[in-house]
Design goal:
The protein is of the alpha/beta class. The protein contains eight helices and six strands; from the N terminus they run H-H-E-E-H-E-H-E-H-E-H-E-H-H. Helices cover 50% and strands 13% of the residues. Strands 1-3-2-4-5-6 form a six-stranded mixed beta sheet, with helices on both faces.
Length: 247
């Protein structure tokens, strides 16, 4: 940053000292150098304010049927592959009562990309309920970064969907006895943060953590669930959304 400002100062001095042809050409060259370096200004700012941790495979997809209908409340389910797993059953269970859409992504709330993904499905929509399930990705981020990212997401919802009822999910545990079981302690730390933010923002809690805690028979792999596990999650999520929608 000091280097770029030095170039600007030198250019200004040259312009002020006289306008013979050689000095003018040199001044133009230096100004063009500053312009060429402009992207590095932005990169430095991003690197200084937001740490990015990528996973081996990143993904994001959304599905918002009935997006223009207003005859029923609309629930946006924001989450990851766990949300993508129970969404079809929740949509079916709430048919005729609440229209449902989903935004599912591998981005942790601490990932700077998450806010942009979320914003795209808050602008121009009228959501009655927003159901948040985010906590199984981005373990490279600290709990403090997780808190900060989650808070930013909730502030974004408050700004763009001020009338939506927010439900915050307690993230599901890792399969007991699996190689990833040690991450459950991180999940519990994140769930503590989620509870604190729910209190701060007046959101309700949907406790999916307890549904599969100490129940390895419900898991299909260290993260995901068999149909019986998904059924338990579906019942819990559907009830939480119906209550928030006043149904």
């Amino acid at each position: 940053m000091e280097r770029q400002w030095a170039i600007v100062e030198r250019t200004v001095a040259l312009l002020a000292s006289g306008m013979n042809i050689m000095r003018l050409l040199l001044a133009i060259s230096l100004l063009l150098a500053v312009i060429a370096l402009a992207p590095s200004f932005a990169q430095e700012k991003i690197a200084g304010n937001s740490r990015v941790a990528r996973e081996g495979t990143e993904w994001c997809d959304a599905w918002l049927p009935n997006a223009t209908k207003t005859d029923l409340p609309y629930a946006l389910l924001v989450g990851d592959s766990i949300t993508r797993g129970y969404f079809p059953q929740v949509e079916k269970a709430l048919a005729g009562k609440v229209n449902c859409g989903r935004l599912t992504t591998s981005a942790c709330v601490a990932d700077p990309a998450f806010a942009s993904q979320l914003e795209g499905f808050l602008i121009g929509y009228k959501h009655s309920v927003i159901h948040f399930n985010n906590g199984l990705h981005g373990f490279e981020y600290s709990e403090e970064e997780y808190r900060e990212g989650y808070q930013k997401a909730l502030e974004l919802v408050k700004k763009l969907q001020p009338n939506a009822k927010v439900i915050i999910v307690l993230t599901t545990p890792l399969k007991p006895g699996s190689a990833q079981e040690n991450l459950t302690a991180r999940v519990e730390a994140r769930n503590t943060i989620a509870k604190e933010l729910a209190t701060k923002y007046g959101a309700t809690i949907d406790d999916l953590f307890s549904v599969s805690k100490d129940r390895p028979e419900l898991f299909s792999d260290p993260y995901h669930y068999k149909p019986e596990g998904i059924k338990l999650q579906t019942d819990k999520v559907s009830a939480a959304i119906l209550a928030a929608a006043g149904k």
